[in-house]
């Protein structure tokens, strides 16, 4: 059941007395991988975001020094994916449901004595939801540190591997995600169905954008017929291997820094 997570770092394998007796529980990292079950074009499985988030967390934990107390929860595979809802197979939660699930999970951990929760999200459609959850939890419990993080936010080499243009524009099921899944789940990728598709963007010089500082709301079928935004045809497992290795190393650094983090405090003159 631990899939990509090292079994000794898999929280559900603990017994309740072991959880009760954990040393330094308030500084122990509890890590929640979060993904989605949503379309990723005609060539990739629905599980892409959940698989990437879980694999990166697992590989990072395998690199983490054993003195760092950290456990991963099972991945939350469902997310807020309504931008993909017009493609068959997508399963989406509402923002309200996702907020409730994460908040109640976090409350259980807090009541058990944990004070550091790391949300590692692999789906680009829900970072804002996680940020709302983290802020509300912080308001409720001032000693609870909650980190709403995006799996692609840690240091990594994806832009160098696939090129800056593809990394910036290939936002869904393109070279990056296809290469990583070719490494993780090669039997679930059908490269004979891989496509290259990019949306018609705003005119040159426009202040508006699909994402970034001045975005507009969109559904995936506004952008793509295939469900792909990017060039999946040039993906390879070798690229995926390099990207995964760099992501895992980056996340090992992030987990170490969170473990060492003692919190913020105001500075007075």
Tell me what the structure shows.
By secondary structure, the protein is an alpha/beta fold. It has a single domain, classed as Creatininase (Rossmann fold, 3-Layer(aba) Sandwich). The protein contains 9 helices and 6 strands; from the N terminus they run αβαβαβαβαααβαβα. The protein has helices at residues 16-20, 48-63, 95-111, 127-140, 158-162, 164-169, 175-184, 220-223, 237-260, and strands at 29-34, 70-72, 116-121, 145-150, 196-197, 230-231. Strands 2-1-3-4 form a 4-stranded parallel beta sheet. Strands 5-6 form a two-stranded antiparallel sheet. Helix 2 (48-63) links the parallel strand 1 and strand 2. Helix 3 crosses helix 4. The longest helix has 24 residues, at 237-260. The relative contact order is 0.18. Keywords: Hydrolase, Metal-binding, Zinc. One of its GO terms (biological process) is riboflavin biosynthetic process. Belongs to the creatininase superfamily. It comes from Phormidesmis priestleyi. Pfam families: Creatininase (PF02633).
């Amino acid at each position: 059941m631990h899939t990509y997570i090292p079994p000794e770092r898999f929280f559900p394998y603990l017994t309740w007395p072991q959880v009760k007796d954990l040393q330094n529980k308030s500084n122990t990292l509890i890590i929640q991988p979060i993904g989605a079950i949503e379309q990723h074009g005609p060539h990739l499985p629905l599980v892409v975001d959940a698989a990437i988030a879980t694999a990166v967390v697992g590989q990072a934990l395998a690199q983490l020094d054993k003195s760092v107390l950290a456990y991963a929860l099972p991945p939350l595979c469902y997310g807020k994916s309504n931008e993909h809802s017009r493609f068959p197979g997508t399963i989406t939660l509402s923002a309200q449901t996702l907020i409730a699930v994460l908040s109640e999970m976090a409350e259980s951990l807090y009541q058990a004595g944990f004070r550091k929760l790391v949300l590692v999200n692999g789906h680009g459609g829900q970072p804002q939801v996680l940020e709302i959850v983290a802020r509300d939890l912080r308001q409720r419990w001032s000693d609870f540190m909650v980190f709403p993080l995006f799996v692609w936010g840690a240091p990594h080499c994806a832009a160098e591997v696939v090129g800056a243009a593809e990394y910036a524009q290939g936002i869904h099921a393109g070279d990056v995600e296809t290469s990583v899944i070719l490494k993780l789940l090669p039997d679930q990728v059908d490269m004979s169905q891989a496509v290259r598709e990019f949306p018609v963007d705003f005119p040159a010089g426009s202040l508006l954008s699909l994402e970034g500082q001045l975005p507009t709301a969109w559904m995936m079928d506004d952008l793509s017929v295939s469900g792909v935004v990017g060039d999946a045809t040039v993906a390879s497992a070798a690229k995926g291997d390099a990207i995964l290795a760099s992501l895992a190393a980056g996340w090992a650094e992030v987990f170490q820094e969170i473990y060492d983090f003692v919190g913020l405090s105001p500075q007075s003159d």
